[in-house]
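User: Can you recover a sequence for this backbone? Please restate the input before giving your answer.

Assistant: Of course. Working from this structure:
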């Protein structure tokens, strides 16, 4: 039997039933990687010897009567997570030899659940791109079309899942880095509520692995089915044992509904700053039609929706404000001079990014206060709706573009070019207020490329969009293996 495209849930059941061993699953996964990954380049740091040893250990544990959630299931891990004994570079050539001494907390949780780690997956330089390429490990290609990007920054993980390299992966997201690669490669991902999943050890090379609270950024699960997302989120979720975990236990609320007919859903496909391409609009409509056919209450407009233009501006300012603190003084002063020269009438997203980079602390506090107003607006909206369906990216995967200046790159939306970084607006809809968002595949475009959308839910009610994802998977289908 071909096991590589089976779900984690199916693999765990087969392992429990004695239909297969972890050694067999691991050897089959490694053989597939060695056969197919030369063309895709998803697994940038293989760890096959230790994976085989872990698989033998998993089989021995099962023979002793042990049973853990992922015992013996092969998985991959984004390169940016620390794994003891393997390099963590974030694609930065200066750090190609950095090897951390201990695992990130999420790698520890994977191992505690019994998972077999096959290796690490490729990322862009510094995790700062929606494509995955760097000078150390090269370019990760989209399994559906090798001339196109797999997305970023968790592009290696998404490509690995689409290619059958392990049943699960873990990634991170601040600018759609879980959701965009999932959309481009036709798999599932979940951006958890901000603060739900501990991130210690997912840090730049040489940075101390401390339990810090990052603004906007989260870590989360990736899979080939919605049910597997929930399975892996349950392994990952919970506070850091060094901080909030000292006093807090996690108890996520149940999904609001179990039947599609009980859901109240707002569907969006228009943004004030950027058009939605025809392929993505068709994907949104496929989901909307499935909701209506399933008896859900679907609306296209509501006065409760927070202002999307202000939300996008706030997101860009908050996102880029973190960059200024790390810039050399001379470069920072040059940008501050440029920002001061902007016209007050310039309310473009490019202007928002530039102003954000040179934010003062006072500026940031003001923006953070406005964010809280948006969060409250979302609370009011989710009193009337259970989820929001909207794009992740305005287009399917696009051709590789390695121009080192992201400001010079352009995004083609149905034949019209737009600034490359403006595509972040849909990812920011959930990221800025810290909402959970589940990326689901909706089928293929006319060019044969995967198209995904996101299901955005109420804060800390992650099980609600995840359950909706399961129900939609049953109606519109889910993952398809690349031909």
């Amino acid at each position: 039997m071909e096991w590589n495209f089976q779900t984690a849930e199916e693999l765990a059941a087969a392992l429990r039933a004695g239909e297969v061993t972890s050694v067999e699953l691991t050897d089959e996964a490694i053989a597939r990687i060695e056969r197919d990954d030369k063309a895709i380049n998803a697994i940038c740091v293989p760890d096959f010897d230790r994976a085989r040893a872990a698989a033998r250990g998993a089989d021995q544990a099962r023979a002793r009567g042990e049973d853990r959630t992922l015992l013996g299931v092969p998985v991959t891990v984004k390169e940016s997570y620390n794994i003891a004994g393997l390099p963590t570079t974030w694609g930065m050539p200066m750090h190609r030899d950095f090897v951390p001494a201990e695992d990130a907390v999420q790698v520890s949780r994977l191992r505690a659940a019994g998972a077999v780690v096959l290796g690490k997956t490729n990322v862009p330089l510094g995790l700062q791109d929606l494509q995955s390429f760097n000078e150390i490990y090269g370019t990760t290609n989209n399994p559906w079309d090798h001339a196109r990007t797999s997305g970023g920054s968790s592009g290696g993980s998404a490509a690995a899942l689409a290619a059958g390299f392990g049943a699960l992966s873990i990634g991170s997201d601040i600018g759609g880095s879980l959701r965009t690669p999932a959309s481009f490669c036709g798999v599932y991902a979940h951006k958890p509520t901000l603060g739900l999943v501990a991130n210690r050890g997912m840090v730049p090379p040489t940075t101390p692995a401390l339990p810090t609270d990052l603004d906007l950024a989260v870590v989360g699960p990736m899979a080939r089915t919605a049910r597997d997302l929930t399975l892996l989120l349950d392994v990952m979720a919970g506070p850091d044992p060094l901080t909030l975990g000292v006093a807090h236990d996690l108890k996520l609320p149940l999904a609001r509904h179990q039947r599609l007919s009980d859901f109240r859903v707002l569907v969006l496909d228009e943004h004030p700053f950027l058009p939605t391409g025809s392929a993505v609009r068709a994907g949104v409509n496929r989901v909307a039609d499935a909701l209506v056919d399933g008896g859900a209450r679907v609306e296209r407009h509501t006065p409760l929706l927070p202002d999307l233009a202000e939300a996008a501006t706030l997101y860009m300012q908050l996102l880029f404000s973190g960059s200024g603190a790390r810039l050399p003084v001379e470069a920072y002063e040059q940008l501050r001079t440029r920002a001061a020269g902007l016209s007050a009438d310039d309310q473009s997203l490019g202007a928002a990014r530039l102003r954000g980079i040179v934010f003062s602390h006072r500026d940031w506090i003001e923006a953070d206060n406005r964010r809280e107003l948006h969060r409250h607006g979302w609370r009011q909206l989710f009193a009337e709706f259970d989820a929001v369906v909207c794009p992740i990216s305005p287009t399917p995967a696009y051709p590789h573009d390695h121009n080192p200046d992201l400001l010079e790159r352009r995004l083609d939306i149905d034949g019209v070019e737009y600034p490359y970084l403006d595509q972040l607006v849909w990812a920011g809809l959930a990221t800025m207020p810290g909402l959970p968002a589940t990326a689901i595949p909706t089928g293929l475009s006319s060019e044969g490329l995967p198209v995904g959308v996101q299901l955005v839910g109420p804060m800390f009610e992650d099980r609600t969009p995840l359950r909706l994802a399961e129900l939609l998977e049953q109606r519109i289908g889910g993952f398809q293996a690349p031909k």
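That completes the design. Residues 261-476 form a domain with the Amidase signature (AS) enzymes fold (CATH 3.90.1300.10).
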